[in-house]
Write a structure and sequence with these properties.
Elements lengths: L4 E6 L13 E7 L3 E6 L2 H17 L4 E5 L9 H6 L4 H11 L10 H11 L35 H5 L16 H18 L3 E3 L10 E5 L6 H7 L6 H14 L3 H7 L6 H7 L8 H6 L29 H11 L6 E5 L12 E2 L9 E2 L3 E4 L9 E11 L14 E4 L11 E4 L3 E3 L3 E5 L8 E2 L10 E3 L7 H9 L4 E5 L3 E7 L3 E2 L11 E2 L2 H11 L3 E8 L3 H14 L2 E5 L9 H9 L3 E3 L3 E2 L4 E6 L2 E6 L3 H19 L10 E4 L4 E3 L4 E8 L5 E3 L8 H6 L2 E5 L4 E3 L4 E6 L6
Parallel strand pairs: 1-4, 4-6, 5-6, 11-12, 19-22, 19-23, 20-21, 23-27, 25-30
Antiparallel strand pairs: 1-2, 2-3, 7-18, 8-17, 9-16, 10-12, 10-13, 11-15, 14-15, 24-26, 26-27, 28-34, 29-33, 30-31, 30-32, 32-34
The protein binds adenosine monophosphate and magnesium ion.
């Protein structure tokens, strides 16, 4: 039995879309190998599986898909529930009864309650969450009585650490995953028909796709050793297990598929692939500890469709967006150190802000309902006071008031506060005018953000106010992407590497490298100076190799066109897959895109003006996406033009511009592409549309300040 590719799915029973750790992860090894991907919902996970199955089938490859939830229940359950023998009868039954919406909302607890109701006694399912009222589903396993079925399947009894399928809730439970996983796979097998078989219930010989139950904990040791290299443990599990299975020689694989158990038992209870044969499974990983493949781009990711000659800017951006993925690993770090970092997971509020109802002003608090009549009120003052950090512990009797300060938790018996400036007091009583609205001058608990609400989404680059928000919500640490390492390399025989060094008359100083390194730094990436090399293929090659080791992405400038002296593009064309994007924009030459040893190379024009504009327009969103953030678009403003210009159709144009005192856009006196002083004079770019325009004074144009490019 041979499989070309192995996919492992780490399943989740989450009731809402979830990403990051403890959500669904999918790994693939062997043919179609890919870094682990995360799916926010079960629906999304099935879409990933379907598309990968399509790819495999289109090229005649066999796939093993392993999922980490029980495929069956202890003996007797299937028959008792469905009236038919065998696990697959139960698969069909669950497929018909389980509801699981695209947003993960599902009826698993209600269904378990209903199943329990049909059996005598209490059970077999348990684990009712506290907020649900389901009379037949006990909260605790110990509450079950007259359990007609075994607690564990035979395979679970053989492998220590497994969890019984009956437990639906809390730490380590797999019961809910089975209830929500089996119906999804049942649908998949139904759709695929005879192309798909479920192990060990069906014969595998003719199946292109085989589904099998797996359990990553069989490789706990290996996973623990390598976990740090992955975004999270679940990602490590799916990748390592997929590689272990894909690495098994054919005979070993065949042996794993014939576990030491009776056929009858296998038909009913299934088996975990590799259970009882962990040494064999381990051998699939080989002797040496495998190198983690960091997230990788596909080799052909920058390919343009045949026949495309000039690409409009908008299309080039869309293509770039779809080609790129985050390329850095993640780490957990304290909120105080996370400014400027990009969140790798959605962050949820650990506590409400404010955590308790409190006073918004200094004044006097009381129960609004106890105020009698209208007009002037006089209330006796209760002893003591409530201040921020010094709560009033007792209850304020109805009809009395208490001194309260800003930020103080409202004591029991207080729901309304009058401002001290509106009161008169003699120390024993307080008097104020009506009418008084209930709850005035108070803040509700969670009125800003409630506990459990999403505070910030994955991909967010943390600002100073974000740190305040996270701290206020009780969040101590976040999972963030490590900063993207951006290598910058200059090429050209005419270039002198170091500013200020003596130069001959045919030489010029490297202007691009300091500019691009500083752009990378200001954008929150880690700049990696790859220096300058002459137009010599050997030297360029060696420096690109260094870049592939030390950086996550390489920006080159110079030598990226198609001319005789364009050594970077020549090298990338002959030794990597180069795509030269001829973008319909000015300034700009072709943008060279390639993968060097798996690392993306963005070949910018040599001309500093073009290099800068291309870095802002294409480099910034591309780097942001590779760093784990969004494919950012700069915010522009429409302002009157303080210049005239007649522009032909066909290319989008970027002019060096700034706003004059009236707030109108003026442009640099020369459009010459060698005029670096214009870049420095400018405070932004005027973006002229692809179409022809005849700009006259006062006409509206789009101005994008450098600040919109985060400079
Ligand atoms: P190239 O893209 O190599 O044809 O270069 C286009 C123009 O940009 C030429 O005039 C180069 O001398 C100039 N150039 C290339 N690299 C740099 C650099 N790092 N700094 C300043 N000018 C450069
Ligand atoms: Mg050159």
């Amino acid at each position: 039995m041979r499989f070309d590719g192995v996919i492992i799915v780490d399943w989740s029973a989450a009731a809402k879309p979830t990403t990051g750790k403890d959500s669904i992860w999918i790994g693939q090894a062997g043919s179609g190998v890919q870094p682990p991907v995360n799916a926010p919902t079960r629906h999304a996970a099935m879409e990933v599986l379907q598309s990968r199955i399509e790819v495999a089938r289109a090229s005649g490859q066999r796939l093993l898909i392993g999922a980490d939830f029980p495929f069956a229940y202890p003996q007797g359950f299937a028959k008792a529930l469905t009236g038919r023998e065998g696990a697959l009868a139960l698969w069909q039954w669950l497929a018909a009864e389980v509801q699981d919406a695209p947003d993960n909302a599902n009826n698993r607890f209600e269904l378990a309650n209903r199943i329990n109701k049909g059996f005598p006694g209490v059970g077999p399912f348990w684990g009712c969450p506290a907020h649900l009222d389901l009379p037949h589903l006990p909260a605790k396993g110990s509450a079950r009585q007259y359990m007609p079925f075994a607690e564990r399947r035979a395979v679970e009894a053989a492998e220590r650490g497994t969890q019984p399928v009956w437990k639906l809730f809390t730490t380590g439970s797999v019961g809910s995953q089975a209830l929500l996983g089996i119906p999804r796979l049942a649908k998949l097998t139904a759709d695929l028909g005879s192309a798909c078989a479920v192990w060990p219930f069906e014969p595998l010989e003719d199946a292109e796709i085989v589904l099998a139950e797996v359990w990553p904990s069989l490789l706990t040791k290996e996973i623990a050793e390598l976990e740090a290299r992955y975004p999270c443990k679940d990602a490590a599990q799916v990748d390592i297990l997929a590689r272990a299975i894909a690495g098994l020689p054919t005979e070993r694989m065949a042996a794993l598929l014939k576990p030491d158990a009776s056929l009858e038992l296998l038909q009913e209870e299934g088996w975990i692939l590799g259970a009882g044969a962990v040494q064999d499974l381990r051998s699939g990983l080989g002797e040496t500890v495998p190198e983690l493949t960091p997230p990788r781009l596909r080799n052909d990711c920058f390919a343009m469709p045949q026949g495309v000659s000039w690409v409009p800017v908008t299309e080039a951006l869309a293509k770039l967006d779809s080609a790129l993925i985050p390329l850095t690993t993640t780490e957990t770090l304290p909120v105080a150190k996370a400014g400027g970092r990009i969140l790798a997971e959605d962050v949820f509020a650990h506590r409400s802000n404010p955590p308790r109802p409190n006073s918004a002003v200094d004044g006097y608090g009381f129960a609004r309902e106890a105020l009698q009549g209208e007009g002037l009120y006089t209330l006796p003052l209760a002893k003591g006071r409530a201040a921020a950090g010094q709560p009033f512990e007792g209850a304020v009797p109805a009809g009395q008031a208490i001194r309260i300060l800003t930020g103080a938790i409202l004591p029991d018996g207080v729901d309304t506060v009058v401002l001290e400036e509106d009161c008169a007091t003699d120390g024993a009583r307080v008097a104020f005018d009506g009418p008084i609205k209930a709850r005035i001058n108070t803040r509700k608990a969670g009125e800003d953000v409630a506990e459990g609400e999403m505070a910030l989404p994955k991909g967010r680059c943390l600002t100073p106010p974000d740190l305040a928000l996270l701290a206020a919500l009780g969040v101590g640490s976040v999972s963030a992407y490590r900063p993207l390492r951006v290598g910058v390399l200059s090429t050209g025989d005419e270039i002198i590497a170091t500013a200020g060094d003596p130069a001959l008359h045919h030489q010029i100083h490297d202007a691009n490298r300091p500019m691009l390194l500083e752009l990378a730094r200001q954008w929150g990436f880690t700049p990696v100076d790859l220096g300058h090399v002459k137009d010599d293929p050997k030297k360029i090659r060696a420096r690109l190799d260094k870049g592939a080791r030390d950086a996550d992405v390489i920006l080159t400038s110079g030598g990226a066109s198609a001319g005789d002296e364009d050594h970077v593009s020549r090298l990338l064309r002959s030794e990597a897959t180069l795509s030269s994007w001829r973008i319909a924009m000015k300034p700009g030459r072709p943008l060279a895109l390639a993968l060097w040893k798996g690392i993306p190379v963005l070949g910018l024009p040599g001309n500093p003006v073009a290099a800068f504009v291309c870095a802002l327009v294409f480099g910034r969103p591309a780097l942001s996406k590779m760093a784990g953030g969004p494919f950012v678009a700069p915010q522009g403003f429409t302002v009157p033009a303080a210049f005239t210009k007649r522009k032909k159709a066909g290319r989008r144009e970027y002019l060096r511009a700034r706003l004059n005192e009236e707030g109108h856009a003026e442009v640099f006196r020369s459009e010459g592409s060698g005029r670096i002083s214009g870049l420095s004079w400018a405070e932004g770019l005027v973006e002229l549309p692809d179409d022809a325009v005849d700009i006259t004074h006062g006409m509206h144009v789009r101005f994008v300040p450098y600040g919109s490019f985060r400079l």
